[in-house]
């Protein structure tokens, strides 16, 4: 659905995006991750036809961004990191304006507005003037504006910025529902734990260059050097048992909270089995063993260097 080939973006002598190649498959929720200044917003603006590439190509739904910008605009819903609103319009007037701009048939606009407000869980009367809305309600309205014309692709740049925890939870639910409808979602955020909850693919960039990309499960396998498991016991173990366990060659570290041990081990099933067998041999009553998965924050820390421009 989205394809970038050797994209390079410059501001004068500054190279903001450096030879970026990326493919976002149809129906994916694709997290676009990187530190400030990595080139995320520049890339998204180029995809939205707002910035011309210095070199390379971009395509959305098979349409070349440079050669067929109008086709691209019809195919996407774009929510920028900073967005403008028309304060003297009501909520309904605002959505109607954008529906007409995108060519939604006038007879379908009222129902489209109803559906959009319901999807974003808008909790304010539609006749309310926009300048009286809270930050969270404006954010929901901006997201609704992005898909008022029912595009197959959504490009969302930091959509959770400035939202309180409840509003961020609602936003995750909305994005999940949009993906369930078959939409392809390309989303950036600094809140990596939230992206991990909703994204099935991710790309990490640093200083404008791609560091790693692909399905999140495959990225985890590629960067994981150790495995973490939680072992819940029926009762707290003796402290000397914890010490002896930590000295096993396949065990990197052990921590304990009440009757649960958190083990970091070699990344193999055999290492886990040997550690659990050792606990049982020593008389520990093992009630549960479960994996502690790595998350996007851990991946980010491992694959990036922390460099800034």
Largest sheet, in brief, is: 6 strands, mixed
- Inertia-based shape: elongated
CATH architecture of the largest domain: 3-Layer(aba) Sandwich
By CATH, the topology of the largest domain is Rossmann fold
CATH class term of the largest domain = Alpha Beta
Q: Helical stretch count?
A: 11
Which stretches are low in confidence, meaning pLDDT under 50 for 5 or more residues running?
A: none
Approximately how much helix is present in the residues? 25-40%
What distance separates the N and C termini? 31 Å
Give average pLDDT, whole number: 89
Question: What's this, in brief?
Answer:
With 309 residues, the chain is of the alpha/beta class.
Commentary on this structure:
The protein is 35% helix and 29% strand. It starts with a strand and ends in a 6-residue tail after the last helix. It has 11 helices and 14 strands. By secondary structure, it is an alpha/beta fold. The protein folds into 2 domains: 2-215, P-loop containing nucleotide triphosphate hydrolases (Rossmann fold), CATH 3.40.50; 225-293, 2-Layer Sandwich (Alpha-Beta Plaits). It is elongated and about 75 Å long. Strands 6-7-8-3-9-10 form a 6-stranded mixed β-sheet, with helices on both faces. The chain has helices at residues 40-47, 69-75, 91-101, 109-119, 135-146, 165-180, 192-198, 216-223, 239-246, 269-281, 296-303, and strands at residues 2-11, 14-24, 29-33, 55-60, 63-64, 76-79, 153-157, 184-188, 201-206, 209-215, 226-233, 251-257, 260-266, 286-291.
């Amino acid at each position: 659905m989205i394809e970038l080939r050797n994209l390079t973006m410059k501001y004068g002598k500054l190279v903001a995006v450096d030879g970026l190649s990326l493919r976002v498959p149809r129906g994916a929720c694709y997290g676009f991750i990187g530190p400030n200044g990595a080139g995320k917003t520049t890339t998204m603006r180029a995809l939205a036809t707002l910035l011309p590439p210095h070199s390379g190509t971009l395509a959305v739904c098979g349409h070349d961004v440079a050669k067929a910008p109008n086709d691209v605009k019809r195919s996407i819903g774009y929510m920028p990191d900073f967005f403008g609103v028309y304060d003297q319009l009501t909520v309904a007037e605002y959505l109607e304006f954008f529906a007409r701009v995108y060519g939604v048939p006038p007879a379908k606009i009222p129902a489209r507005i109803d559906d959009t407000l319901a999807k974003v869980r808008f909790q304010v009367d539609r006749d309310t003037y926009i300048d009286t809305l809270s930050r969270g309600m404006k954010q929901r309205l901006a997201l609704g504006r992005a898909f008022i014309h029912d595009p197959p692709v959504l490009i969302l740049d930091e959509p959770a910025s400035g939202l309180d925890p409840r509003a961020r939870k609602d936003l995750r639910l909305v994005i999940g529902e949009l993906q369930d409808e078959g939409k392809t979602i390309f989303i950036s955020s600094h809140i990596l734990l939230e992206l991990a909850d909703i994204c099935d693919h991710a790309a990490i960039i640093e200083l404008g260059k791609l560091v790693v990309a692909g399905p999140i499960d495959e990225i985890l396998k590629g960067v994981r050097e150790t495995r973490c498991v939680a072992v819940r016991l029926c009762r707290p173990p003796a402290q000397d048992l914890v010490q002896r366990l930590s000295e096993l060659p396949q065990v990197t570290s052990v921590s304990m909270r009440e009757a649960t041990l958190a083990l970091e081990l070699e990344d193999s099933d055999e290492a886990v089995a040997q550690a659990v067998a050792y606990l049982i041999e020593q008389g520990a009553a093992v009630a549960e063993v479960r994996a502690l998965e790595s998350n996007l924050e851990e991946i980010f820390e491992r694959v990036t260097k922390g460099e800034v421009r």
